[in-house]
């Protein structure tokens, strides 16, 4: 009986060792992943900005500058190549004689994630692109107002000698995101 019990224990231990050995096996499978390079930019909400100087009511006083506009938000999505980064620049379709059009971006806020860009100092827009946000990596800002970078656009006379009366002058601001 003792011999039968010993044989039974040896068979059980061999079965446990085989089962344990099977439980330790592993396998692998390769997968193919594609992450496209993405670069999208939008200004929200849609619509035109209207800004007007106010004429003085007393001779000898300057124009009153319009209140800076803070209704627009810059939204973007970016997936960069390895080691890449992007910048965001802006330019105007034409200059207004005697007037500076200034642009400032706030730090990114709201939804989003990743390496959202860093705004620089306020810039004076010209007909040549000027970078105002740098260091955009793989990131998204969320969409719509209160997501991304809030834009502040202001108008300031730069040379009264060049001012000319204009009514409903349409200027386009073009924003460009570039890089790799």
Q: Can you offer a commentary on this structure?
A:
The structure is a single chain. The strands form 2 sheets. Strands 1, 2, 4, 5, 7, 9 and 10 form a 7-stranded antiparallel beta sheet that branches. The chain has a domain at 38-47 and 64-161 and 174-179. The protein is 12% helix and 35% strand. It is mainly beta and 180 residues long. It has one helix at residues 2-23; strands spanning 38-44, 69-79, 86-92, 99-105, 113-114, 118-119, 123-124, 130-136, 139-140, 149-157, 173-179. The relative contact order is 0.24.
Which structural class should the secondary elements be placed in? mainly beta
Largest sheet, if any? 7 strands, antiparallel
The dominant shape is: elongated
- Bin the helical content: 10-25%
Rounded Rg: 32 Å
Cα end-to-end separation: 79 Å
Q: What is the total tally of β strands?
A: 11
Give me the strand/helix succession.
Answer: HEEEEEEEEEEE
Report the β-strand fraction as a percent range.
Answer: 35-45%
| Count of helical regions | 1
Rounded mean pLDDT score:
89
- Poorly predicted runs: none
Give a quick rundown of the structure.
The protein is mainly beta.
Question: How would you summarize the topology of this molecule?
Answer:
Layout: H1 2-23, E1 38-44, E2 69-79, E3 86-92, E4 99-105, E5 113-114, E6 118-119, E7 123-124, E8 130-136, E9 139-140, E10 149-157, E11 173-179
Antiparallel strand pairs: 1-2, 2-9, 2-10, 3-8, 3-11, 4-7, 4-10, 5-9, 6-8
Features:
180 residues; 35% strand; elongated; 12% helix; 11 strands; mainly beta
């Amino acid at each position: 009986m003792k011999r039968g019990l010993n044989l039974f224990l040896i068979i059980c231990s061999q079965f446990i060792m085989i089962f344990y050995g099977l439980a330790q096996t592993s396998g692998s499978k390769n997968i193919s992943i594609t992450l496209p390079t993405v670069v999208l930019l939008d200004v929200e909400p849609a619509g035109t900005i209207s800004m007007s100087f106010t004429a003085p009511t007393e001779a000898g006083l300057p124009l009153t500058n319009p209140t800076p506009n803070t209704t627009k938000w810059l939204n973007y999505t970016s997936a960069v190549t390895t080691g890449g980064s992007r910048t965001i620049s802006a330019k105007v379709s034409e200059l207004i004689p005697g007037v500076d059009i200034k642009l400032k971006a706030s730090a990114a806020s709201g939804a989003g994630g990743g390496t959202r860009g860093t705004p620089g100092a306020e810039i004076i827009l010209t007909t040549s692109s000027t970078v105002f946000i740098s260091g955009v990596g793989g990131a998204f800002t969320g969409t719509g107002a209160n997501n991304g970078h809030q834009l502040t656009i202001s108008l300031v006379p730069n040379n009264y000698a060049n001012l000319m009366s204009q009514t409903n002058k349409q200027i386009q601001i073009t924003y460009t995101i570039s890089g790799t």
